[in-house]
Amino acid sequence: MEEMLEKVRQFAEAAHGEQRRKYAPEKYIEHPVRVMELCKLYDQSPAVLATALLHDVLEDTSVTRDEIARFLFNVMDGREAAKTIAMVVELTNVYTRENYPRLQRRKRKRKEAERLGTISSGAQTIKYADIIDNCRGISVDDPDFAPVFLKECKTGLTAMTKGNARLREKALYTIQYEKIMLNDALINS
C-alpha cells in the first residue's frame, strides 16, 4: 500500500504544481500529506488515504475527474479506485462563488455544510482531518478572518456526523482551541 500511496502523492504533487499554502511558505502538497497522515491514525483503508492525498485536486487544479480515474485504475484495485474517485468528488466544493455568484458567502457555506452532511463516512473522516489542518494556527495567521472561518468549520462539523467519531472530536477541539487563542490575543493586544 505504501508504494501505491507514494504514486498517488506524486500525482497530487504534480497536479498542484507550484501552488503554495496561504499561510506557510510550503508547497501545497504538504497539506494533503498531513491530512492523509492524520486520517491514517483512524482509518487505514486505501481509498480513504488516497482520497486524502487527492482531496483538493478537482477543486484547485486543472486536473479532471477522468484524468484522476485513469491514473487510479492503473495504481489501485478497481473497487478501491472507484471509491477513491467518488470520495474526491464528494469532497469537491459545489457551492462556490463561480457556480453560485448571486449567493453570499454565508449562504454558500451553509449550503455546502448541509451537502457535506450527506456525504459518505469516509469522505467525512477526511474532511475532519482537512478542517484540523486548515484551522491550526489560523488565530495567529489571520486573526481577522479566523472568526468567520472557525464558525464555518463548526457549522460543517455540526452537519457531518458519520465519519470517525474520535477524529471529529479532535476537529471540534481544534476549533475551540483556536477560538481560545484568538480571544487571548484580543485580550492581550
In terms of topology, how is this protein built?
Elements: H1 2-16, H2 30-40, H3 46-54, H4 57-60, H5 65-75, H6 78-90, H7 105-116, H8 121-135, H9 138-141, H10 146-159, H11 165-187
Helix pairs in contact: 1-3, 2-3, 2-8, 3-6, 3-8, 5-6, 7-10, 8-11, 10-11
Helix-strand pattern, N to C? HHHHHHHHHHH
Total domain modules: 2
- Number-wise, the strands total 0
Unreliable runs: none
Task: Give the radius of gyration.
Answer: 16 Å
The portion of residues assigned to helices is: 55-70%
Largest sheet geometry: none
What's the shape? globular
Distance from N terminus to C terminus (CA atoms, Å) equals: 49 Å
Mean pLDDT: 95
Strand content: under 5%
Number of H- or I-type helical stretches: 11
Q: Could you explain how this protein is built, in words?
A:
The chain has 189 residues and is an all-alpha fold. It folds into two domains: 1-92, Hypothetical protein af1432 (Orthogonal Bundle); 97-189. Helices cover 69% and strands 0% of the residues. It has eleven helices and no strands. The chain has helices at residues 2-16, 30-40, 46-54, 57-60, 65-75, 78-90, 105-116, 121-135, 138-141, 146-159, 165-187. Helix 2 packs antiparallel against helix 3 (46-54), helix 5 (65-75) runs antiparallel to helix 6 and helix 10 (146-159) packs antiparallel against helix 11 (165-187). The longest helix has 23 residues, at 165-187. The radius of gyration is 16 Å and the shape is globular.
